[in-house]
Amino acid sequence: MENNILTEKQKMLAGKAYQAGDAELAKERLKAREIVFEFNNLAPKFIKQRKELLKRLFGKTEKMFYVEPPFRCDYGYNIEIGDNFYANFNLVILDCAKVSIGNNVFIAPNVAIYTAGHPIHAHLRDQEYEWAQEITIGNSVWIGGNVIINPGVKIGSNVVIGSGSVVTRDIPDNVFAAGNPCRVIRQLTDADKDFYYKDFKLEE
């Protein structure tokens, strides 16, 4: 019977209520913070060393990726990034649940990706219960500056999220979405290929 009792980490990864003060989880967060501290405090020229630290920290990486320091996360091993990934300054990922990011994803400064949440009622919150839900981001996504992505959200492929948005619900493929709460503004089509900003075209 005892073998069926879940640890707090197992509860966290299963999307159940858990207590983050658990010793195992605290130890894993400390390990991640040590790596993140080293990453954030390396001199700018040490690009290769920073990349190796993220390979140790993240659950999955591909060949091409770059993350501008400073960066913050909870555990690291729940973060999976695709190829040709770029994140600008001050990315925060609270990865109490898995965060899966596809290929060719660009993230602007001050983006926050939160899988973690707390109970609404103070009775449970005061007992330090938490919960977490996975976040998925598809391929060829650009996330604008100061965007917040909330727990459980799925963002499709070929999507642009406008700066300052708070994403509280799923976003389908091939759209520009923005606002608080974030909502679809319009579809993206082949007609957008010729324009790099508003009505401006590339000169050939």
TrEMBL record:
Keywords: Acyltransferase, Repeat, Transferase
Coiled-coil positions: none
Domain Maltose/galactoside acetyltransferase: 9-63
Gene Ontology MF: a single term: galactoside O-acetyltransferase activity
Enzyme class: transferase
UniProt-recorded name of the protein: Acetyltransferase
Domain of life of the organism encoding this protein: Bacteria
